[in-house]
Amino acid sequence: MRRDERLGPRIPSSEITDESAWRRRDVLRAALALPALALAGCRERAYGDVAPLPEGVDSADGRRTTEPQTRFQDASTYNNYYEFGTTKDAPWRNAQGLRTKPWSVVVAGHAERTGTFALEDVLRLARPEERITRLRCVEAWSMVIPWLGLPLGRVLAQFRPTSRAKFVAFETLADETQMPELRNPTLDWPYREGLRIDEAMHPLALLATGMYGRDLPNQNGAPLRLIVPWKYGFKGIKAIVRIEFTEDMPATAWNRSAPDAYGFYANVNPAVDHPNWSQRSERRIAGSAAKLFAERIPTRPFNGYAAQVASLYAGMDLGRWF
Predict the structure, then answer these.
(1) Is 252's pLDDT higher than 70?
(2) Does residue 274 lie in a domain region?
(3) Residue 127 lies in a domain
(4) Do 301 and 134 form a contact (C-beta atoms < 8 A)?
(5) Is-contact 151 126, C-beta < 8 A?
(6) Assigned domain for 125 exists
(7) How far is CA 106 from the centre of its chain?
(8) In this structure, what DSSP letter does residue 200 have?
(9) Residue range of the domain that includes 139
């Protein structure tokens, strides 16, 4: 199935902030977040004041919402990160020794600018923005997290992808000395993910470098992870070491492992069940320490971002292209 007609426009170089306009590296941490909070957590750092929304009102562009925020303790200790173990508490127990500095990223494929770049060089030309977005994980649970980072599209634009770049492929670090689960065939390592180029260029797609006003914890994907708020959580690849612009749809880890359960697109869709469970409702991880899971709530198409992203999939059968 050809999708060329749905590819979004390239971002012109005129929209990329010149390097001389950057103040210092800390500005990379402009507030990004996954659903809810009125940006209180972001105001703890001096990135500019953002007025809270009226009670119970979400912003039209999806950047801010008033849903209750997940506690940092829960967001940083209840994780999927199979390189460090398959239980929810294994990542924070096993990932503390991961070396995240220095860090480099290989950029390859159909782009005018390719090579191996220090993480600072990958990020420095992209303008920081403040936004809040939603994270929906794969096992019918969800979190509300204030992420820090940059719009993915602005990072990718500086590498000047060519007209042959129809997709963007991502790859995670694979180091058995630091990631004990790589010795087991849980998945086909290294972990790989991908997006269509217009999805990657959408302003709600994020490269996260931190959360809750601090550096990204190792167990949450340090030093660089992907956030695509209208998709299921397994699309949020962590510890990115390679970005490649491809002409063909890239193979992805969970899709290769179980294609009947994990599609390439992975858009949140309550009408398409996982083979082992319904996806019509979810449990939000938010609230007090005494009650980790809240009551079940209905799952929304595109995780509540239909107004912003549904047009990307016009004419597609989302039951087939799940």
Answers:
(1) yes
(2) no
(3) yes
(4) no
(5) yes
(6) yes
(7) 18
(8) H
(9) 17-253
Output the CA–CA distances (angstroms, integers) from residue 288 to 75, 282, 291, 292, in the order listed: 13, 18, 5, 7
Which phi and psi angles does 180 have, rounded to 5°? -60, -30
Query: What kind and span of H or E run contains 195?
Result: strand 192-196
Residue 243: CB partners within 8 Å, gap ≥ 6? 105, 106, 107, 108, 156, 159, 168, 169, 170, 171
Per-residue pLDDT, 53:
43
Give me the number of domains the chain comprises: 1
By DSSP bridging, strand 104-109 and strand 240-246 are parallel
Instruction: Check whether 35 has a pLDDT greater than 90.
Output: no
Torsion of CA 31, 35, 40, 42, to 10 degrees: -10
Question: Is the residue at 151 inside a domain?
Answer: yes
Tell me: pLDDT of 92 over 70.
yes
193-220: buried (b, 16+ CB within 10 Å) or exposed (e) per residue?
A: bbbbbbbbbbbbbbbbbbbbbebbbbbb
- Tell me the CATH number at 100: 3.90.420.10
Which residue type, as a one-letter code, is found at position 312?
A: L
What pLDDT score does 292 carry?
63
User: For residue 146, how many other CB atoms are within 10 A of its CB?
Assistant: 26
DSSP states of 61-127: TSS---SPPPPHHHHTTS---GGG-SSTTHHHHH-TT---SS-EEEEEESBSS-EEEEHHHHHTTSP
- Distance separating alpha carbons of residues 238 and 234, to the nearest angstrom: 10
Contact call for residues 89 and 185 (beta carbons, < 8 A): no
User: Which stretches of 197-271 are assigned E, i.e. beta strand?
Assistant: 206-211, 214-215, 225-227, 240-246
Distance separating alpha carbons of residues 203 and 15, to the nearest angstrom? 13
C-beta of residue 147 within 8 angstroms of C-beta of residue 204: no
